[in-house]
Batch of 2 targets.
Target 1
Amino acid sequence: MTDAETQHQLGTNLRRQGQACEALGPLEAAVQLAPTNPLFRLDLGATLLGLGRAAAAETIAPAVALVPTLPEARNLLGCALLAAGRTTEAQAEFAEALRLRPGYAAAHDNLGRACRAQGRMAEALRHFQLALGRSPSPSPATHSNFLLATNYADSLPAAEIVARHREWDARHARSLRPGFPPAIAPFAGRRLRIGYVSPDFCQHAVAFFFAPVLAAHDRTRFEIFCYHSGSVRDAVTAQLRAAAEHWRDIAALDDDTAAGLIRRDGIDVLVDLAGHTAGNRLLVFARRPAPAQATWLGYPNTTGLAAMDWRLTDATCLPPGDDARHGPEKLLRLPDVFCCYQPPPDCPPAETPATDRPPTFGSFNNLAKLSPSTIRLWAQLLAAQPAARLLLKSPGANDPETQNFFRAQFASHGVAPERIRFNGEALPMRQHLALYLGCDVALDPLPYNGTTTTCEALLMGVPVVTLAGETHVSRVGASLLRCVGLPEFVATTPAEYVSLATRLAASIPRRAELRARLLTSPLGDTVRFTRNYETAMLEAWQASAAAAAA
């Protein structure tokens, strides 16, 4: 075996064991020793991609040049380009992989992801369905990608979306449920053990909302375990790890092994923070490793799992009524709001906007949320404000074809292309937040509302306008705004949305006052939220324990 092969084998073994960071050195050494070996480059590129490193595409591209007819190489390069926000280039690679191997399910799946990132939801759904249909045994991850996409679609009835989620359970999860109930540990004289499972314990929106709860947990009553199922490790990961009593890296563990670890830890309530987003471990929950299991925060819909007991929400996101129509989980409605928000350190001041520029509406949401209904509504607003501009800030927004796509969509409603501005820069948090100062009003999309972006806008003193829908995903904006005492920013009709945004652009509230409203509200009171959340966790465990004893 050559030195290059030895280094490559060492690197792949480390990666297989979940030590992706440690694998980089040997894999880089293998490439340096054998720069024309495409396998070595592809494995290094895949490892960089899994770690979220920007160099992935530049590492993989030379390998593709060496093996241009290998569909797997084209597909991997497409994934790296997509992660870098180079959406059009990614689509070309996925299309070439499909030309080389017609019906290639993985390429259809990834092309669906690329179309979703570009806001082409009808095409995204079609490719996800092709990926599901072209494989005799489609992966749960591909099926989850399809389900995630249904939340962005403005043409699918809510009942159909819930039914599709139940299909995921029937197809992938239900048969995994053990034939015996999980053990209920005696509770007297000990703390309740809560376990959190997420691939996003890193620089990710979920971590921003989870971190204050982790810090505020009452450690005299609760023992906290974090199960990190992702491969990315960064400064946020280190902060969360330091705040958790028990930390388990489970990225390299299969579902059976991970479930066994959770059982041995004696978890009372196991909380999913991912739903059907990338890297989820719902199949661990399907194995029922804890007596009470709940989903919260990371996904705006049902998981569809019969093994998921609870779903945390609030009375605005899901008003009381026929709860069964929302999925198999029982709904736990938190008293004020379903989450809490803690500002990042060193955020810029909420300054008064400049008055020597045209009115500027802004959306910092994922471009996938810009549904046809959203574009039609915002075009009506721009028609009512002929001098106004629209800023779209989102990853991937610098891609030229993506810009052309959205400008064409707005142009079809009579909006001139030069009125739409884009910013796709990956900026440090302080600079990212400062961009809100160039906006007069933040626009919430539909049916998939913003969460992080709404909190960020209010933090920077920018009023947010939302249109309340009928489901959790389309009522998050209403929940957040009502919680901070701004129900007047919640529209109930498209005409009211346009009128409200127009009025706010003409008479902008004092920015410092909006920030103060956020920070002094239940949304900004992280300790109050955590005490309410802990009460819900106790209720969930007690109900599950009573059911098991019956």
Note: The mean pLDDT is 93.
Target 2
Amino acid sequence: MRISGLGVIDDAVLELAAGLTVVTGETGAGKTMVVQGVNLLFGGRADAGRVRPGAARAVVEGRLSLRPDHPALARAVDAGAELDDGTLIMTRSVAADGRSRAHLGGRSVPVGVLGELSEQLVAVHGQSDQQRLLRPAAQRDALDRYAGEPVTGLRERFRTHHARWRSVRATLAELRAAAEERSREAELLRLGLAEVEAVAPAPGEDLALRADIARLDAADDLRAAAALAQGALTGDDDGDGDDALQLLTAARRALESAADTDPALAGLAARVAEATFLVSDVGADLASYASGLDADPVRLSVAQDRLAALTTLVRRHAVEDVDGVLAWAAAASDRLLELDGAGDRVEVLAAQESALEAELSELAAALSEGRAQAAERFAVAVSGELTALAMPHARVTARVSQGEDPQGLPVGGRRLAVTAEGVDAVELLLEPHPGAPPRPLHKGASGGELSRVMLAVEVVLAGSDPVPVMVFDEVDAGVGGKAAVEIGRRLARLARDHQVLVVTHLPQVAAFADQHLQVVKADDGTVTRSGVVALDGEGRVAELSRMMAGHDSGLARGHAEELLASASSDKARA
């Protein structure tokens, strides 16, 4: 891994061993920046404040060698990455202005892709994780992770069913809460539709009525106009006067009598004859129209009353005409069907809720049982680690409990408080010595005890974690003496199956390293490429001596050599 421009690190390269690599150095030398670099490389939050002053950006580059069938490689290839001789190159940069970029196998990718890979590749355990594990939710997550697929698989199924159950419950509650409002709306629609049905308007009826009323109201004037026109065209009944028909008849006869002399007049005579017939037809139609007009006040009153009823409907429904009323009635009928069907929907949703609740209750019971069984194994494993960490009489208990909630999920005859994670609360309790009451970790342990309990938890979790790389950042703080040796022994044991990187201040831990890196600041306060030194032989003895005594002395060197020999012998026996 190469780090540049990050905190005090100007430019440094770390060659990590396949087993246990420890990183040591003076306080403030930049050891923690190594862990920060790992976090950045695997999609951690970008903090511009971590960029070295004067540097344009912080860059972390890592080269990973994985087995060909590792799922992380398949995900990387899906993201467009190209492998370099079977290895995967990852790069993360953070500019001084906060902009962050990620590259995978030479291709630019979203930072989230690196985060996805981190779940399959690396687990970081640090002091912040210890504080996190004091929270009940984190303790439940830790127990689930320890339990593995039998519990995590149930939990995922529970989450899916829980989301569906909540959705159905919310919809059902909304429908039930709105039942009274729907009832009022349906009643108003029924009243409106009954009124429309009672009037029974026809399309365009209001326009036809207005025209009919106008005719009835002006019947006398219309009759007089028709009679006058008829008289002008065909004459009065007594035959007096010169009307158009008589004049046309005289014209036709005159033309017909002269047609023998000039044939051209025959055509004109024929046209006059057509006009005569047309005037005669119009006169007959006018006579029929005039005789059909009826100034009937009763009929006029009926038409006016009908139009008034239609106008009332139009105004009540705030539309323009009767056609608008009919359109409202059609929409109201559809809405009424929908409202009347809401009751059926409530019944359907209630049945769905009941079925989902039954399934969810079964999953919750199975999940609680799985957690309870895992809690017993987890407590035994952690307590066993504490015995090796110089707390032989301490006992850790993982308590799985449930809380009552009248509106919760029915499980085993009780209604329990429920979340997307199940109905269980998980709490780690410490009994520091026989006879002492078990108490929550943050109340029942001293600083040193808490560090050892947390480390024991981390070691137990790490042993069940499938990721190939594990990083421990000073989780041994507050521990010393024999317990420190046991910490080193456990980390070395983890390193048989994982690549382990440890930032430590304990010489007892550093003595177990397969690769020992020392971080050294230059005179200007920076860590350069030459500032990360791989120690061996005399270099390791000198660094362990410094870590024990604060300086390199003959007595401390003897103790350092003894530590190295003891650790080497311990690893050989293992």
Note: The radius of gyration is 49 Å.
